[in-house]
Amino acid sequence: METDIPLREIMIHEVVTGDKDMNVREAAKMMKKYDVDSIVVLNDGDPVGIVTQGDIISELVTKDTTPSTVKLEDVMTTPLVAASPGDHLSEIVKKMAAEKIRKLPIIEDGKLVGIVADVDILSVSSEMNTILADLIEMHVERDILVTENEGEEVEQGICEKCGCFSNDLRVKSGRMVCETCSEEMDIEE
User: What digits encode the pLDDT tens for the residues 32-55?
Assistant: First the structure.
């Protein structure tokens, strides 16, 4: 994963916001309308907090409180943990993990300009993570094969010596080779 990506390249620019005096019912309707799970709370246009679906559940539903009677300022997480558009992904991932947060508003010159969520970070890095996981898995499997199966038939695949496909690869001198190449290596030794 490229860790020097500035947040401005991955942040979502359109953020759902609500005034601190908005009630939770109205906020929940906005969240549903825009298909988001959080709303950034503003006070005179300045970001001061955030309310997530989890906040609504833990603060209202579990306490059997009527959402239309509760203001966002009463359930918002504050102080607002935020970042700037020039912050790098590597810093932000650490910050989000340390603060145990999944949404991070992006503020520039005191104004809300975007938001980054854990899923945004995952989407940026998912392809690289998949490739890395595959490489690690291949390396681990190969190490196990090399140490435990020297000389035994392993499986089908591409011979690491001649590059041809084989139905019966064998581990020979730390390489997965076909039967022909294995025999040639025996002669060369």
Answer: 999 999 999 999 999 999 999 989
Residue for token pair 């916001």 = 17
Question: How many other C-beta atoms are found inside a 10 Å radius of the C-beta of residue 15?
Answer: 21
CA torsion 39-43-48-51 (nearest 10°) is: -30
pLDDT band at 143, cuts 50/70/90? very low
Three-class SS state of 174: coil
Q: How far apart are CA 165 and CA 157, in angstroms?
A: 6
Cα(124)–Cα(126) distance, integer angstroms: 6
CA distance 6 to 8: 5
Token digits of residue 181: 């190449």
Which domains, ranges and CATH numbers included, belong to the chain?
Answer: 7-123 (3.10.580.10), 149-189 (no CATH)
Identity of the residue numbered 114: G
